[in-house]
Amino acid sequence: MSNPTFNLGNHRYELVQQDLNWADAAAMAQAQGGHLAGLGSEEENAAVFQAVTALLKGRAAPTAADGGAAAYLWLGGSDQGAGAEWHWQDGSAFDYNNWGYGPWGQEPDNFTDPTLAPDGQHRAALALEAWPKGDGALGSAAQWNDLSQHDKLWSLIEYDTPHHVLKGTAAAELIDTDPRAHSTVDGGAGADTVRVHFTQDSYLFSQDAKGMHLVGNDADLDLSNVERIRFDDVAVAYDVGGDATGGQAYRLYQAAFDREPDAGGLGFWMATLDKGHSLTEVAQSFVTSPEFINANGADLAPEEFIVKMYANVLHRAPDGGGLDFWKGIMAAGHSQAEVLAAFSQSPENQAQVAAVIGQGFTYTPYE
Predict the structure, then answer these.
(1) Are 108 and 121 a contacting pair, CB within 8 Å?
(2) Are 250 and 261 in contact (CB under 8 A)?
(3) Residue 298 needs a FRET pair 20 to 30 A away by CA distance; which of 31, 80, 133, 278 works?
(4) pLDDT in the model for residue 324
(5) Which of 220, 179, 224 is nearest to 203 (CA)?
(6) Across the strands, what pairs with 15?
(7) pTM of this prediction?
(8) CA angle, 273 as apex, 267 and 278 as ends, to 5°?
(9) How far is CA 118 from CA 50, 112, 133, 362, in A?
(10) Where are the beta strands (DSSP E) in the chain?
């Protein structure tokens, strides 16, 4: 069974679900290119504990008899060796600590017992619950305790991960990202797609004024000026606004055929718009398509066409003023394609379709 991982900033953490003493846990971490976790701030401690708690839901981690029978994870802290002060596995001193405390005293206390801790307590561990178990008189969950190095516990390995800063150009681009890193991507102008490794459900997705953010087990990404994301299992378009080509293609499909677009066709027409073809050009392909003609009829009179547009796009009959307006537009020489494009981009239709695509929509990329 593979160990679960999570990313925080430029660090990846692996929750090792093997019962190991501290020395074996530290050796495993080093052999895998990391080190037992060192927590350098209150913010990091809180974020790590929150992530670990989520991963451990429904799993029972081993307990330490000399730690009040509570469950713990090995950290990289020790007070043995050079200087005999508390330091991390890489030799750096503690700049921050979160030792447990309570009515019974303060950790670390170097408790020594012939059976439970014959050579004292000289290794740091992250508590997953209060201790002693049942009353918490010495410490709480997320605090640290010093334990016997012989305890068999699960551990937390920390890896330093690279941080890539990627900048797009004015063109529409496919930007690949590192599956084991923190990536900051500014797509620039154009309809840019970021290639994200692993499946969509491998990431927690959020969006704010700065852009889109994905946090996964092995990688996390901060995206700005990026319109689309391509996961291993699905492609999602977030360019849904009025002038964005993704939203334009989706709305035109819905307007012309009064149905949800098929993913492959949608991807093709998105690519067509991305290449610089106008919405009216695409609309012309739609109104001359067999599907449109079979559904609406051929050689429609202007009024017949306008009534169809109201029904297909706005799902209502035209009001008198609206009907006269569009009849005037067509009498002035504007084509069916131009009217279809205008209906699809109308504020009324944009508001209707926003309820469906406002959080993005899936499509099949055309290459």
Answers:
(1) yes
(2) yes
(3) 278
(4) 97
(5) 220
(6) 156
(7) 0.69
(8) 145
(9) 33, 6, 21, 61
(10) 5-8, 11-20, 35-36, 63-64, 70-78, 101-102, 105-106, 123-127, 144-147, 153-160, 163-167, 174-176, 182-186, 193-195, 203-208, 211-216, 220-224, 228-230, 235-237, 361-363
325, two tokens = 């307006």
DSSP SS3 for 333: coil
245-363 is classed CATH 1.10.3130 = yes
For residue 92 the two structure tokens come to 């750096």
Q: Report domain extents, the chain.
A: 5-160, 163-233, 245-363
Band of residue 171 on the pLDDT scale cut at 50, 70, 90: confident
The tokens describing 365, both together, are 């990329």
Domain spanning 5-160: which CATH class is it, in words? alpha beta
Tokens 């900048």 found at: 167
The first and second tokens of residue 19, run together, are: 């019962």
pLDDT tens, position by position, 268-318 = 999 999 999 999 999 999 999 999 999 999 999 999 999 999 999 999 999
